[in-house]
């Protein structure tokens, strides 16, 4: 699984961090998403898919 | 005379009034007309107080698609925007909640940092202390007592005051003015006066923070005013938005959520008997979904033609996205009318969707987790002191809840 994020679209909702803390973080200065792990392990796939589904700004893309 | 009726006119002629009434005896369920409309099709016309007939969007998937669509505007000053109430005389200053990108994004990003998950988690022990202390006071005070005044309003008010840097001693003043602003039935003059009071108050506070910045959110805005990134009026408007949104909504979730749990004793028992943070977090999501307190719908206007379900929404036409009925969409949630704290409700739209999705959601979630995870365990015999029929619901509020909740233990 390959993950990309679009920091320009991100509205800093934090939903991805709640869903998959090991994969997503937020910048200190404005809460915008930071991708910690662009190729998460298989056991995290479900959480990452959930993060992409709840992201209100459609800022998370997944490629299998 | 034979004439073919334009389908749009036909929709408009049949348009039911919005907002609609809930069914008697079902204070937790959306109005039955909303269910009928959702079953009948993705779009319907509704009639507002001013005679306008915007589109009502009822289904979960369509609402998400439209709220995430840049062809849809949240700008209250655009013609066709479905207003909740008449524009107050002299117009109204509004912060980013009623503006579009890039202006919306510019302003929102100035206040996103304090709502990041880690920053909010760092506030949890302080919120736990506020909740513990208020419960101590509750137990030492009169019994029965109104849970709204004694607990549901003070928790989020204390928290947002601390975060913003607003003196809590002024809570009667800002709570009373907020109540007027979110009441559907006040006159435009009353609403505008209440808004003016709050702007004046926040402007005064901004003056103090500009002179003597400390470590709080308003001081952060003050520094931006000093740096010329933000006008003082924009800062005051943002302060008003955060102050109102920060206490009214969460307070209603606390009181209405508690009442819903009284009516579902087996669900209340789950919370009373657990300290599992995952179950508590799941309970918060399910109560947000089930109660959906922002029951006036997300309001938008189309800036281009948009096709949906074989129908075309024309540029300039208003849209109301009824998130409350989307959270009860059987296409999304199995047995949607059942309150089930153990279900996975995380995809609800109680905080909206798209770029305007609630800025305060991490804070609201954390506060509700602390409250629901503490109140019923500390007071296991907590129950309503009057019959459900005697509890006054906020049918006239743009945010739903109860005016009063007498409780005993
Ligand atoms: C359970 C409590 C809450 C609920 C149900 C709630 C609900 C909502 C909803 C539905 C929206 C979207 C409005 C739209 O799309 O038109 C929203 C936006 C917003 N909320 Fe909340 N809210 C809650 C708590 C809070 C708190 C605690 C704060 C602040 C401290 C807050 C601040 C905001 C702000 C600033 C916006 C505007 C965001 C934007 O336009 O970008 N809310 N809220
Ligand atoms: S869920 Fe989306 S909008 Fe929210 S912080 Fe993550 S990337 Fe940004």
What does this molecule look like?
- The complex is a heterodimer of chains A (64) and B (409).
- Chain A is α+β, with helices and mostly antiparallel strands.
- Helices cover 23% and strands 22% of the residues of chain A.
- Chain A contains 2 helices and 4 strands.
- The model of chain A has no long low-confidence stretch (mean pLDDT 96).
- By secondary structure, chain B is of the alpha+beta class.
- Chain B has one domain: Orthogonal Bundle (Cytochrome p450).
- Helices cover 47% and strands 7% of the residues of chain B.
- Chain B contains 15 helices and 10 strands.
- In chain B, strand 6 and strand 7 form a beta hairpin.
- Chains A and B meet through helix 1 and helix 2 of A and helix 5 of B.
- Iron/sulfur cluster binds next to helix 1 of chain A.
Name the CATH superfamily classification of chain B: Cytochrome P450
Shape of chain B: globular
- Total number of beta strands of chain B: 10
CATH topology of chain A: Alpha-Beta Plaits
Oligomer: heterodimer
**Can you give the mean pLDDT of chain B?**
93
Major protein interface: A-B, 20 and 24 residues
Q: Helix amount of chain B, in percent?
A: 40-55%
What is the CATH architecture term of chain B? Orthogonal Bundle
Question: Which bin fits the share of residues in helices of chain A?
Answer: 10-25%
Query: What is the CATH C-level name of chain A?
Result: Alpha Beta
In terms of DSSP E residues, the strand content of chain A is: 15-25%
* CATH architecture classification of chain A: 2-Layer Sandwich
Would you kindly provide a brief summary of this structure?
The complex is a heterodimer of chains A (64) and B (409). Chain A has 64 residues and is of the alpha+beta class.
